[in-house]
């Protein structure tokens, strides 16, 4: 009979899978309450089969000597069923092949003095390993790090999921081996070298991890134990069992994985995919338990490690401190900001975009973090969200584009294919001058025109067809047709970056604009990530479709950001406290590809009546800074927190 007993929650050593005991001896440990016997078959010439001993909590354990790194093995359940290791560190032969023994301590890390940095300093660059470079590997990214750091100016790269998935091309959200870096990307050693190189260049590494489901192909966890539950449903597959019978060991499996990335790969932050697909009615939610474990490990290592959630819930509880009744995660993606900005730029209103489209929506995203804070959502046909005003701006990641919002379009079309060149500059300014944490999707910095399509490489024809039909159903709500086949290799090949910076003046000009925005964001506190004590004042000009942001860090020079969404030139009466503002950035400048026909005034003088008249170009994007002799004079007028004023 299986041994069932409660395990202390603090006991989470990284002992799952194949762990080296000495130079030639490996301990194998696996959780399998469904098995009456478990053995490990090491695929040597002798085909050694070593029985494992059942331990407490339905774990099976044993040691094997005379092994070398790279040797393959499988578990044998009930003397007949052979399966890869659920905690495999490496799957060199794919999701159906045997697992391989790895020595993760062989890399001579050079980042021993790396401690990470605060989340408020993150400027994130999201990338897909397989399409970011022609080679599509971890190590092929390394030569591009100086470009990302020096030419773009980002401070962190975010890798889309890298857990072993079927075939050679996939977004990564169909992974089935959470501990095994994708073999076609370069496996464990490739990922370690990439992270080490990032730290050498002063860049943090965010890893996207998927704890709401596992992919269907190569997913053998159900043969070992109750990893999944039918009590809940997710759009992507069986929900993970976080609160049912035997869920303690499932929770440990996932939390051990989070700690594993931090300890063995020196990852600086975890981005938790779609936590609205994580269901847990335990007294302590799995998100809280995972966050606590990560933060405890970070303290032990003397590093700053962050946990960022992707959530469709608009629930501030996720990032509210534990002492105030929240889960205590460090940050979350803010989809409302993206949707509000996207609708103003493109005019799209299909699907979930029907909840957005007004200038007020973007203003609310700047002021209130979320747009929907409990009011009725037409798309959901119910009230949605709660207030996040008490949360710090540094807890929200915002973007104009990301993998989902591009790749989950029928044609995978980026903004460069949807909006004008001048509007692209407005989009970058809206994100990079926001008081939140900005994120760029790979190629966005220069206006990449290649699509980012959804692609798969499954081996099961029925599964391939199911994915095709699922995509068609998903796009029906948007009225999109002519959906590219996700299994066709051309969908993958077309999604590779294809920069033309040497031959395309607009791409070079947009990169210059992005670079300068980031440089000023880093150097000027009133343009960086806001602190709770900073002032962020939003003013709307509906007729001209213009928003102005007044931003001031305490006791520092203020910034006035002016941007708009009208494709026609017009005039505007700006209303701000009297004083003088010096033009810092104008998107119409020639170095940014502007026509220079309608330029921002070099000096914006607001009179005693608090107004000044300006001529606006199409899609204006301006940044002004307070005249040095004015610093401090408007502090009393500007104080009072985040407000919206309408004209």
The CATH superfamily title of the largest domain = Glycosidases
**Tell me about the biggest sheet?**
8 strands, parallel, barrel
Uncertain runs are 1-11, 635-641
Structural class: alpha/beta
| Range of strand content | 15-25%
- Separation, N- and C-terminal Cα atoms: 74 Å
**What is the CATH domain class of the largest domain?**
Alpha Beta
- CATH topology value of the largest domain: TIM Barrel
Q: Any idea how many domains? A: 3
Number of helical runs?
A: 14
Q: Quickly give the CATH architecture of the largest domain.
A: Alpha-Beta Barrel
Helix content: 10-25%
Number-wise, the strands total 32
Strand order of the largest sheet: 10-11-14-17-18-19-22-23
Report the radius of gyration as a whole number of Å.
Answer: 26 Å
Q: What overall geometry do the principal axes of the alpha carbons give?
A: elongated
**Mean pLDDT, all residues:** 93
